[in-house]
Write a structure and sequence with these properties.
Blueprint: H1 5-24, E1 30-35, H2 46-59, E2 65-67, H3 80-94, E3 101-102, H4 129-134, E4 140-144, E5 147-152, E6 155-158, E7 162-165, H5 169-179, E8 187-192, H6 200-205, H7 220-224, E9 231-237, E10 243-248, E11 251-256, E12 274-281, E13 284-291
Parallel strand pairs: 1-2, 2-3, 5-8, 8-9, 9-11
Antiparallel strand pairs: 1-12, 4-5, 6-7, 10-11, 12-13
Length: 298
């Protein structure tokens, strides 16, 4: 007896979908490095320190390095030429690295928000525009060996504090539109400078302490609510200069310490100068904080 044509068609479609799902499961292992809060400057032997971090990272043979923002010491409150000099120093230093770089924007890459003497309309590179011109878009994504990486901006202007942690409508729209092209089963890593979730305030001040609006993304719930139909596995965060790792509902949140420690003056509280090594094996990841051996010089 012949099977009805529509049944044969449905079986074929099911087999195709199953084969497509199987193809989405990553089969290649790889590693990458997350370096955040570099705060590069010509002072305090910072260039030598950063070069040492790059050398140690290179020995680990990662596929690439993702930075978590605050690449330069500070462009928020400086003149234009000093901001350009800091960008030149950072970009010139990483240009000598054989490892590819993906950069996130930190609050200290934003030019002029703390300089009340600047008139925004007179400067094309004011605010985030300098980062956009010299490095690239604050929101972007890429794929690597079966994993999807999403880099976002969670920094917005504020009259009283110069900035706060907040994901704008532009950022939320970017995430939602980006995920439309990501297969449901594909593992995702999210990178943000200002943390979505942190226990720093509770660690420092006690269990009832509140987070400051400059230290976390205030609408982090809206960011995470973009992902329920997708496989968000890891969130990499910076800004706070200390290392923490927590897991909530299968999502690992890592605040990645700081390459510069306490702005090249030594370790910061309980965290040495360092970066995070992430090893990917199939659908799983292992993380390790690497103290790269820098001793502050005075």
């Amino acid at each position: 007896m012949k099977k009805p044509q529509h049944i044969i068609w449905c079986i074929g479609l099911l087999l195709f979908l199953l084969s497509s799902l199987k193809a989405q499961i990553p089969s290649q292992g790889f590693s990458f490095v997350f370096m955040t809060d570099i705060h590069l400057t010509r002072d305090d032997y910072a260039v030598e320190g950063f070069r040492k971090a790059l050398a140690v990272a290179s020995d680990l043979k990662p596929d690439f390095i993702i930075t978590g923002g605050d690449l330069v010491m500070d462009a928020l409150d400086c003149d234009y030429q000093h901001a350009i000099d800091q960008y030149d120093l950072y970009l010139g230093t990483i240009s000598n690295s054989p490892i590819p770089f993906y950069n996130a924007m930190g609050n200290h890459e934003i030019w002029g928000w703390q300089n009340k003497h600047l008139r925004q309309e007179e400067w094309e590179d004011y605010g985030k525009n300098l980062f956009k011109r010299r490095i690239g878009p604050p929101n972007y994504s890429f794929d690597h060996k079966g994993w999807h990486f999403v880099v976002i901006n969670g920094i917005e202007y504020n009259d009283s504090t110069s900035y706060v942690g907040w994901a704008s409508d532009e950022t939320l729209d970017f995430i939602q539109n980006d995920l439309k092209n990501v297969p449901v089963g594909m593992p995702i890593i999210l990178i943000t400078h200002i943390p979505l979730i942190t226990l720093e305030a509770q660690w420092e001040k006690g269990a009832l302490a509140c987070n400051h609006p400059m230290e976390v993304i205030g609408n982090s719930k809206e960011v995470l609510e973009c992902f329920p139909a997708h496989s968000l596995r890891l969130v990499l965060q910076g800004h706070l200069h200390y290392y923490e790792k927590m897991e909530i509902d299968g999502i690992i949140f890592i605040t990645g310490g700081a390459v510069c420690g306490a702005w090249w003056k030594g370790n910061y509280r309980v965290t040495d100068e360092g970066f995070v090594l992430i090893r990917i094996n199939g659908e799983y990841c292992q993380t390790q904080y690497i103290d790269y051996g820098w001793e502050a010089m005075r």
